[in-house]
Input
Amino acid sequence: MEYNTQLKRLALPEYGRNIQNMVDYCLTISDRDNRKKCADTIIVIMGNMFPHLRDVNDFKHILWDHLAIMSDFKLDIDYPYEVIRKEDLYTKPAKLDYSRPTMRYRHYGKTLEKMVDIATTLEDQEEKSQFIMLVASRMKKSYLQWNKEVDDHKIFFDLYELSDHKIDLRNSNIQLPDLKEITNFKKQNNNKNQKKNKQQS
Output
């Protein structure tokens, strides 16, 4: 009696021993046309094993790649696709260079710094004031994700630094909404939108 541990190691265990045996038999067929027909049949069987993946892009291409791998790239047929090469199978992917934008305050993020830059360029004073309050509130929310408490003056000081001293609220009496107020405001808006959508539908 033979145990699987005594048999040849499977290149792709997810297809099982029977499919591997089919591939090994296909390699022994001397006639090229018959060998291609056998390979086509194996591909159909492999595809039927994973019907839920048929909607995946290049599903057939992947199957032919797998067939080449299971044959140890020795199957001499006219492949319908350019299959993966053996030397590319074990090469490590190139290292990704992650963008590391320079930020003065990493807990605020690069997008918020861009918003501060936009705020400094607005000419309409009313629009500018509203936008600055929006940015400051967002800064407070971002800060509270990393710290339990924050003083509004700390936010105003950071805003002063981020804006290159162009936005100065340090000595103002402005009070930013706390996190609970921001959350409740969003919930109220979401509830209003849901009610409006229900009424329209």
